[in-house]
Structures are given as C-alpha cells and as structure tokens.
Amino acid sequence: MADTSLKNAYVFAERLRKEVAKATVTYNDIDINYTISVGVAEVDEGITSHEAWIECADAALYQSKETGRNKTSLHPKHNR
User: Fold this and answer.
1) How many Cβ atoms sit within 10 Å of the Cβ of residue 71?
2) Is-contact 68 52, C-beta < 8 A?
3) Is the pTM of this model over 0.90?
4) How many other C-beta atoms lie within 10 A of the C-beta of residue 33?
5) Model confidence over 41-60: pLDDT tens digits?
6) What is the set of domains in the chain, with CATH numbers?
7) Could you count the other beta carbons within 10 Å of the beta carbon of residue 36?
8) 39 with 61: CB under 8 angstroms?
C-alpha cells in the first residue's frame, strides 16, 4: 500500500479481516464461514530488498496465527 502509514495499513487490514469474517460463501448448498490472519510490515530504511520486506510481513502473519488467529499483527519491531 504505497504512501500509506503503518497505522493506516493496520486500519485497512482490520477492516478487511472483519469483512471476511462476516462473509458467508455458499458452495454446493453448504454455507461456509471463514476468517483470515494478516501480517503487516512497513518498508523503511532497514528493509534492503523486497525479500526482506516479505520476510517481515510473514513474521507478522505467523505472530497472528500463533497468538489466536483471525487477527492482524504488525511486524514485531513495531510492537514495542
């Protein structure tokens, strides 16, 4: 999300997560409810490649999964 602050990216991710949790998908006459976990990482001067940025976002995603799922987490360096 270019030109978006970490705070605003978090707000967007939370809105998306909540909308997904409210949605119901019908497949073969079966209603399916699901949730998502989201990891958010900010690109800053410490990020030297897109691979490093993806690793940061992935670490945040796994933090969401390991601490309860269906949540949004920021990259650990931002959780001080």
Assistant:
1) 17
2) no
3) no
4) 10
5) 998 888 889 999 999 999 99
6) 6-78 (3.30.70.270)
7) 17
8) yes
